[in-house]
Amino acid sequence: QAQPVESGGGLVQTGGSLRLSCRLSGGPYGNYVMAWFREVDGKERQFVAATKWGGLATYYGDSVKGRFTISTDSDTSTIYLQMNSLRPDDSAAYYCALTDRTFFSTADYYRPSKYDSWGQGTQVTVSS
After folding, report:
1. d(Cα 116, Cα 99) in Å, to the nearest integer?
2. What is d(CA 128, CA 98) in angstroms, rounded to the nearest whole number?
3. Which residues have a Cβ under 8 Å from the Cβ of 20 and sit 6 or more positions away?
4. Burial of 127 by CB count in 10 Å (0-12 exposed, 13-18 middle, 19+ buried)?
5. What is the pLDDT, as a whole number, of residue 1?
6. Are the CB atoms for 126 and 41 separated by under 8 Å?
């Protein structure tokens, strides 16, 4: 599988917005599941959002519902994470992940172990 490459992280004030990008190479990705996770201080990666390529269904972690939006762009083979109303507790390293496995339950989307390819991460810091 191709190595995802994230970008778009940075420093933003509370209430601000950022858009993260995850660029893929190769393809096609029609059967792939794409996700964003985040990690703070080496703790277990936390599920943020996931979708299947084409965005027919989307899944979000409870703490980001209504504020974050995951989307895909097939023309540029890019996955986006639009983050609005950012809070200090959103500060983390954000990772893009993908897999071509078939998921049989919603819980599979939330588990980092289900994903096979990971990007290098991009840091998001939200100041209070």
Report:
1. 5
2. 32
3. 6, 7, 8, 9, 36, 80, 81, 83, 94, 96, 122, 124
4. exposed
5. 58
6. no
β-pairing verdict for 122-127 and 10-13: parallel
Q: What are the CA-CA distances from residue 103 to residues 10, 31, 44, 51, 99 (Å)?
A: 32, 11, 21, 11, 10
Q: Which pLDDT band holds residue 2 (cuts at 50, 70, 90)?
A: low
Query: How far apart are alpha carbons 5 and 31 in whole angstroms?
Result: 19
pLDDT one-digit tens code per residue, 10-65: 999 999 999 999 999 877 787 899 999 999 998 999 999 999 876 678 999 999 99
